[in-house]
Specification:
Blueprint: E1 3-5, E2 14-16, H1 19-26, H2 30-37, H3 45-58, H4 64-71, E3 76-81, H5 87-100, E4 106-111, H6 116-123, E5 133-136, H7 143-149, E6 155-157, E7 168-171, H8 174-187, E8 193-198, H9 206-220, E9 230-232, H10 238-248, H11 250-253, E10 257-260, H12 263-275, E11 285-289, E12 303-307, H13 309-324, E13 333-335, E14 338-341
Parallel strand pairs: 3-4, 3-5, 5-6, 6-7, 7-13, 8-9, 8-10, 10-11, 11-12
Antiparallel strand pairs: 1-2, 12-14
Helix pairs in contact: 1-2, 1-3, 5-13, 8-9, 10-12
Length: about 350
């Protein structure tokens, strides 16, 4: 960065270039420099070029604090997640940063751990931290309290919609994608289907919506999702998937397909099945959601519902910026595309007795 002598009494002392230095070098007013910095159209091209050349020569960097005072915004948004050590959430964060950066926004991350107090801080917009808005995947916060906070905090939700709030919700169509999963499994001859990842305490969350989608589509095919073949998991992790197999016994081992609410659950289920001497997909097919990178590197590779992460991130950032600009209409639900990525874990079954 270029430096300017700050005082004739102390010629060795230097400081970063200021706006008045740019104005002096370019031969323009301070207001003209401000107009160029803020990309306003009321500056002649020749003058703009002269100011930009002076900015480059001096390596002038506008004051963040000054910009915040002028606009009332920090251009910083927070992505608040229960965990940041899962592959899907890492890919999601990458997509959010890529979508926010060209719009002049910086994404910072917070791992709430699913702790209610931490989630309340997120829903309140991190008071005192200069955050313009929050992209939020809540786990434990009181729904009514969060709905009230959404009237003040620009917020977009990823985990589940929040009726009666001012927070938008962006996701794939979880019910429709579950129906596609069932159609695929039915097409390969699977009829005894189980489900791992139910969340009955959170009826609007993806675990429950996907389960309902599986149940409804099975009914369309004249089949039933037996209650004994539906398993609740507190978290969508590999460990919980493997645990479901060890706890379920014949209830899941008697299936010919298991639908898992996430890829991590699916990978854990496959590990549990292998330990039980069950072949995948010969004996039991397995499918998940999220299309994490691991699905292509485990054996067998895992069939998965793949959300369009780029579209999800773009829509999320656009919706949040509208809220930051002052939109306080009731929360809206946005649906983004998805694809069913068919891999080895749902191949044709081998013949075996029921």
């Amino acid at each position: 960065m270029a430096t300017i002598e700050s005082s004739s009494r102390d010629p060795d002392r230097t400081r970063p270039a200021r706006i008045k230095d740019v104005a002096a070098l370019a031969g323009v007013s301070l207001k003209t420099v401000t107009n160029v910095v803020h990309q306003r159209s009321n500056v002649r091209d020749s003058t703009r070029a002269r100011v930009l050349a002076a900015i480059e020569e001096l390596d002038y960097r506008p004051s963040l604090a000054g910009r915040q005072l002028q606009s009332g915004r920090s251009t910083m948004i927070t992505l608040a997640l229960p965990r940041i050590d899962e592959p899907y959430l890492g890919a999601l964060a990458h997509a959010m940063i890529a979508a926010a950066s060209p719009r002049g926004y910086t994404v910072v991350m917070d791992e709430t751990g699913g702790v209610p107090e931490r989630e309340e801080q997120a829903a309140a917009g991190y008071p005192g931290h200069g955050i313009d808005g929050v992209i939020f995947s809540p786990f434990a916060i009181d729904q009514e309290a969060m709905a009230a906070m959404s009237r003040r905090t620009p917020m977009v939700l990823l985990a589940a919609p929040l009726p009666g709030s001012h927070a938008d919700y962006v996701a794939i169509d979880n019910h429709a994608s579950a129906a596609e999963v069932v159609d695929h499994l039915h097409g390969t001859g699977r009829r005894r289907i189980g489900y791992v990842g139910r969340t009955p305490d959170r009826p609007t969350a993806v675990g429950e919506i996907r389960m309902v989608g599986v149940r409804d589509r099975l009914a369309d095919h004249g089949l039933e999702l037996a209650e004994r073949r539906v398993f609740t998991t507190g978290r969508f992790t590999r460990e919980m998937g493997e645990q479901a197999i060890s706890d379920a016994g014949e209830d899941l081992l008697g299936c010919d397909a298991i639908v898992c609410c996430s890829d991590l659950l699916a990978i854990g289920v496959i590990r549990g099945l292998k330990r039980a001497g069950v072949r995948v997909p010969d004996d039991i097919a397995v499918v998940g959601w999220d299309n994490i990178i691991d699905t292509e590197y485990v054996s067998p590779t895992v069939t998965s519902v793949a959300p369009d992460l780029e579209a999800l991130a773009e829509q999320t950032i656009e919706a949040l910026l509208e809220r930051i600009e002052g939109n306080r209409e009731p929360g809206r639900n946005y649906v983004v595309p998805h694809r069913l990525m068919i891999r080895e874990s749902t191949g044709q079954p081998s013949d075996r007795p029921n």
